Here is the input.
Amino acid sequence: MKIVYRAESIIDANLVRNALADDGIAAYVSGHYLTGAAGELPVGGLVNVMVAESDWPRARAIAERIDADLAERRADPGYNDDWAADAV
Here is the structure.
């Protein structure tokens, strides 16, 4: 298996994994349990999306597209990552 995407969060990793699955590429999110150890482990580089080496070129193109979309969304001045519903 080869790393195709180094995620900022478990959510980003699963977005990429699901997109790969939709395209017929089997992918595995590694390190997802390590996020619970934040504070004990280095903050970055814990969560990765991995694919078979033979799928890597096609998977990389998909991962790069999703990463660019995520970066564009985060760069939007109106972006608000507080997705919880407002209290009634």
